[in-house]
Amino acid sequence: MSDTVSKRIGESISRLLGADYDAEAVDESAGGKAQRERLNQRLVALEMRRQANIEAVVAMAYAVAGDDAIEGPAPDVEDDWLARFVGHAQDVGNPVMQTVWGEALAHQTANPGSFSLRTLDVLAGMTGDDWGTWKRACRLNFPTGYLLKLGRRAEFDEFELTRDDIQRLQTLELVQETDDLSVTFYAPTKGLTFDFIGANLIVRHPESTLFTLPAFRITGAAREIFRHLGADDADMEYLQALGESLKADGFDFRLRPAARS
User: Fold this and answer.
1) Is 185 exposed, middle or buried (CB count within 10 Å of its CB: 0-12, 13-18, 19+)?
2) In terms of Cα–Cα distance, which of 255, 178, 246 is closest to 213?
3) Which of 56, 214, 217, 260 is the least crowded, having the fewest Cβ atoms under 10 Å away?
4) Helices (DSSP H) in the chain: which residue ranges?
């Protein structure tokens, strides 16, 4: 191990735990007073950091909620849900993710049941960079839970969602592992309107009433996140490319803006 890496290890651990953790200090104190002091400093440093994280998330929840009124009677947020929430939020120090967790708390309070415990676990595995990748995927997502492929391609490079990004979202349990999935839509009039956020993709076929399209499927946790945490409008250039890719299978398409629901 190089000196540079060793130095970085010591600096990183010392910054987090509030004591001296360079290689010499650790080697010199296998037990004894110095180790007990580091134990005490670690407990204080970690819990202070966790408290600061919790308060940052709660402050963001207040900012999101504002003066919004709750319409009609609503049950209290369950203690078990809050305990799981706080257990995760205490270790969220990234400002982007603190905003996400604050939004989740505000939404769950206004609409209990919006986020399952499993969805909280999935969110806990995400970094700020992961959230950016997810938001790019959201702009391509069909709201019923699919990323419709361009032909048979397993990536969307020109829309800033690479194959590696898809694999990362699969690891995070936001996209199902199956890569060769197809989804079939029944179109009795030989035409369908795909209602994306902010746009409608209208697809017709001169003969078929079954439209089978290659796709990735997002998970149940991902659908909750997509539904409740402010998905952006669909990428119109992607929808145009999707329509063009369907032409190879005999489809016609039309694209039009649509109001958000």
Assistant:
1) middle
2) 246
3) 260
4) 3-17, 23-28, 33-65, 79-89, 95-110, 117-124, 128-138, 163-171, 220-228, 236-247
The pLDDT tens digits for 71-88 are 666 678 899 999 999 999
- From the list 44, 27, 234, the residue with the least C-alpha distance to 146 is 234
With 0-12 / 13-18 / 19 or more C-beta atoms within 10 angstroms meaning exposed / middle / buried, residue 152 is: exposed
Burial of 130 from C-beta contacts in 10 A (0-12 / 13-18 / 19+):
buried
CA distance 134 to 175: 10
What's the angle, vertex CA 233, arms to CA 100 and CA 218, rounded to 5?
Answer: 65
Q: Please write the tens of the pLDDT for every residue from 118-158.
A: 999 999 999 999 999 999 999 999 989 999 999 888 899 99
Q: Assign residue 33 a region (left: φ > 0; alpha: ψ between -120 and 50; beta: otherwise).
A: alpha
Burial class (CB in 10 A: 0-12, 13-18, 19+), 58: middle
Cβ proximity of 159 and 133 under 8 Å: no
Instruction: Give the chain's radius of gyration (CA, Å).
Output: 24
Q: Which helix (H) or strand (E) holds 254?
A: strand 252-257
C-alpha to C-alpha distance for 206 and 246, rounded to whole angstroms? 13
Phi and psi of 215, rounded to 5°?
-160, 160
Tell me how far apart the alpha carbons of residues 251 and 201 are, in angstroms, rounded to a whole number. Answer: 12
Half-sphere exposure of 259 (CA within 13 A, CB side): 1
- What's the whole-model pTM score? 0.85
Residue 81 is predicted with a pLDDT of 94
